[in-house]
Amino acid sequence: MKETVDAFEDFSLDDEERYRAFRREMAIMDRKAEMKDAYEEGMEQGIEQGLEQGIEQGIEQGIEQGLKQGIEQGKQELVLNMLRTGISIEEIASMTNLPVDLIGAWGK
Q: Is the pLDDT score of 12 beyond 70?
């Protein structure tokens, strides 16, 4: 700020012209400060939004994986129960649409 004032005093301007030049320089500095504040606010909002989206996606993926694992485990338990009751692998494959070799592997 002092540098700006000193620079304007060096000019051979009358007081009114010097005041206008000073006000112009101050307006430029104010605009730069506003732009910096807007940039920082935008960055903060972007980071916050990115974190929210990342958390939401992580939760969705975790739920989805948990459901898939639960369904797979449920199928396996069902197949094992069916095998224990004496239902053949071929019949189980027909009822569950699972491959015979998978049912055989689960039964071991």
A: no
